[in-house]
Structure formats: structure tokens, C-alpha cells
Write a structure and sequence with these properties.
Elements: H1 2-12, E1 13-14, E2 35-43, E3 47-50, E4 55-70, E5 73-81, E6 91-94, E7 100-104, E8 108-117, E9 125-127, E10 133-137, E11 146-152, E12 163-170, E13 175-177, E14 182-183, E15 195-204, E16 209-213, E17 224-228, E18 232-235, E19 242-244, E20 249-258, E21 267-268, H2 275-278, H3 282-293
């Protein structure tokens, strides 16, 4: 039914808004039930606590510095950035059903909380800047050059169930990301895994914008979403490249949550898969991403 489909599409793009520390993508979301996402804003000395029974989470300060307490364990001075374009991220992994308390140690802090549905409890651990796995791929000539900082990638400093967390940057002003188009909507291993995904976009300068494409498998056309600074985009299926407007750098915080496994297996859109060979460094990119996300 067209009307039902249109309502679902509208819910996939969540414009920037003041969420008052309430989840932007809550547990058991109707589109991405495997994912969880919240943005917490704190001033110096303020605290925020949470506990999720069916989701493992990763706390990542976008800006500012926090202390994190997890069931009596303390991880201090997490986060070293004044803004996301400045340096590498840090984070703390929070196991299923364990209480986490955040305390702001800087003047202000904006904190991403990413999550994946899981049913086992592991040990909390901290991710420092020297634990971040950084890769680059694509080319400047084809406007596909991007930089990826894996916070929870292939080899995190502790055990993780189904959650992958990264930061992605378009390199230079304007350019494509997620190209060639790919999907991960069906467990059809080894060719494809089912992962729900959440993006939160930022632009430099902040008045920038971009376009998020979403083409259903087997169709020639799909919706295109106008994304701005602070936009959140959620999806469970479809090919999903995005592009930044000329003159702007684009960043997006990325959450991937697997249904049956953590490793990500991407299925490239057959009409464009040949560009893995023709775009400079894309063959390397595919190898790097497979090595980063597959066990």
C-alpha cells in the first residue's frame, strides 16, 4: 500500500531536534529493531545514567570529555575532542543489562550512545585513540575518497556481540560515500548478512547538506532524503549511497547491528559492482572493509 510505504519512508529520516536526552532510535524500533541510538548533552558536572536489558551499547563522546562508571568499574577522561573534525574518537563498551553512569568533565559534552540487540553479557572496556582502526579508500578524481575510523571494528580491545561502530568522513569538499551501492538486508552467507543501520550526519561548515539514496532491491528508483547537520537516518534494507554538496565536508556516525552475527557481508548492486575494479583504490577498499568487518 502506497500510503503505508510513504509513512514508513518519512520515519526513516529523523531531522535534527532537541531530544532532551531521550532515545532518538529506541529499543525495538519498528524499522531497525536491532539498533539503538541516543544523543546525550551534558554540562560540566552533570550526570546521566541508563541500563538496557536486551542491548549492548557503546558510548562515544562526539565532543567533550566524560567519566564513565559501569557496575563499579571506572573509565576516566574518555574523549579528547572539541569537535568531531579535530582528532580521533574514544569510547566505552557497555555490556547487556549493566548500568552505566556518565559524568561530564569538560565544559560541555555531546555523547553518542549506540546499541545492538544481543542476549549475552560480556565485560565492559574502554576504547582509546590508539585503539581506533583507521582506513581510507576511493579516489579524489572520482569524488569517492573517504576516511573511516572504526571504533568497534574487527579487533576491538574486548569481546563484543553484534555491534559495529564507526565514524565516516568524506575527504575534501563534496563527494560520494557508500559507493558502489551495496545492501545488507538478508542473511545469505557468505554473500550477504542482515544488519540494521543508523547514521547521524554532520557537515563542515554546519550549514551544509547532502542526499541519502535508498533503492529497493530489484527496483530502478527509490526515495532520496535531504539530510542536514544533525539528521539521523535509519534503514533495514536497500542500496544506500549518499553524497555531500560541493563545498562541504560530510561526517556520519555509523551503527551496524547484526541479526545472526557481528561480521558484515555487503552485497553490491550488480549494475555498479564493476566500479569496484575501475575506481582507484576501491578494490583495496573492499579488501580492507572485508578484513575489518569479517571474522
Amino acid at each position: 500500500d502506497y500510503r503505508t510505504k510513504n509513512r514508513v519512508e518519512l520515519k526513516m529520516h529523523i531531522p535534527q531536534h532537541e531530544n532532551n536526552n531521550e532515545p532518538i532510535v529506541d529499543c525495538n524500533n519498528e524499522i531497525v529493531p536491532l539498533c539503538y541510538f541516543n544523543i546525550i548533552k551534558l554540562s560540566a558536572g552533570e550526570e546521566f545514567s541508563y541500563q538496557l536489558g536486551d542491548y549492548e551499547t557503546c558510548i562515544v563522546p562526539a565532543t567533550g570529555t566524560i567519566d564513565v562508571e559501569v557496575e563499579g568499574r571506572n573509565f576516566n577522561e574518555v574523549g579528547k575532542r572539541n569537535h568531531i573534525w579535530e582528532s580521533d574518537p574514544e569510547g566505552v563498551y557497555i555490556p547487556v543489562n549493566q548500568k552505566a553512569k556518565l559524568k561530564c568533565k569538560s565544559g560541555k559534552a555531546e555523547v553518542f550512545i549506540s546499541g545492538a540487540k544481543h542476549n549475552e553479557t560480556y565485560e565492559a572496556f574502554v576504547i582509546r585513540q590508539n585503539d581506533i582502526d583507521k582506513v581510507q579508500y576511493g579516489s579524489d578524481d572520482t569524488k569517492t575518497h573517504r576516511k573511516i575510523k572504526h571504533i568497534l571494528g574487527k579487533n576491538p580491545p574486548g569481546k563484543v556481540g553484534k555491534l559495529l561502530v564507526s565514524e565516516l568522513f568524506t575527504v575534501g569538499e563534496g563527494g560520494w560515500s557508500g559507493f558502489p551501492p551495496h545492501k545488507h538486508e538478508t542473511d545469505m552467507l557468505p554473500d550477504e548478512s542482515r544488519h540494521n543501520e543508523v547514521y547521524n550526519f554532520r557537515f563542515n561548515p554546519s550549514n551544509g547538506f547532502g542526499a541519502q539514496f535508498l533503492t529497493p532491491d530489484g527496483e530502478d528508483f527509490g526515495p532520496v532524503y535531504h539530510v542536514r547537520d544533525g539528521s539521523t537516518f535509519i534503514f533495514d534494507k536497500g542500496y544506500h549511497p549518499c553524497v555531500a554538496a560541493p563545498g562541504f565536508e560530510m561526517y556520519y556516525f555509523t551503527i551496524l547491528a547484526g541479526e545472526s552475527q557481528r561480521p558484515l557481508h555487503m552485497n553490491y548492486q550488480k549494475e555498479y559492482a564493476y566500479q569496484l575494479e575501475t575506481i582507484l583504490a576501491c578494490k583495496i577498499c573492499l579488501t580492507n572493509l572485508n578484513n575489518d568487518f569479517k571474522s
